Amino acid sequence: MPRMILKYPACICGNRSYGRILKVKQAQIIRCKSCGLARTFPVPNPNYANYHCDFPESEESPQIAKRYYSIVSSQVRYFKKQGKLLDVGCSVGWGLECASQMGFESYGIEIDKQRAELANKPGLNVFCGQLEDAQHPDKEFDVIVANHVLEHILELNKFITESKRILKDDGVLAIGVPNYKSLIVSWKRERWSAWCVKYHIWHFEPKTLRNIFRKHSLSPKKIFKDSDYKKYQGFRKLTYLLIDVINQGDSLIVVFEKHRGSYL
111-124, pLDDT tens digit by residue? Predict the structure, then answer.
């Protein structure tokens, strides 16, 4: 019987040659041999109508949203303390409320119609759809936040290009993604929940994320690695807290600037 040859999809760099990292459920996590970006194969074709049902705790908790925004704000506010802020993938708008309380004029984008309607509270402006569909003017925003969005987007270059177009010349872009090159993942391996092969197309680590954005002339200014240690108890909580202290968590936040500057 002839051996079946797998035809891998092209990476965003155009390469089709991959090495396998590991198997997760019925999928493979493969890594581009050219640029190093990892992805799920077969490529997920998710039904986002059920996405929030699959992750009720993470998506429905205002405490988690507020904790994330407290982290983002501490990183972003080195560069911007006010102005127009766009939250891509804003869910029901808890993060937008936090941003408004910090003094930003807050806008959101959410693909889920029900959540977009819930997020459209007084003082908040939420568009239901994709980033490109919102048709924002050039250089409109001082801050763009995309928390755990990039791993879901098939056309990464298109998303980054559009984000850059609507970002002011001195604006900042805050990206949050799972970090598969963390101590937590080296311990959990295929049991790491953030592989999420049903929904996550891409898998990031600091080096590849920096390189992708540098190709779009967006320079990384601040890098922060975090883990959600507060949901654990006892020894496990202490372990995750120590991982945070040494900046090796499994959640990666990088703040990029549009204009030229020193690279990290």
Answer: 999 999 988 888 78
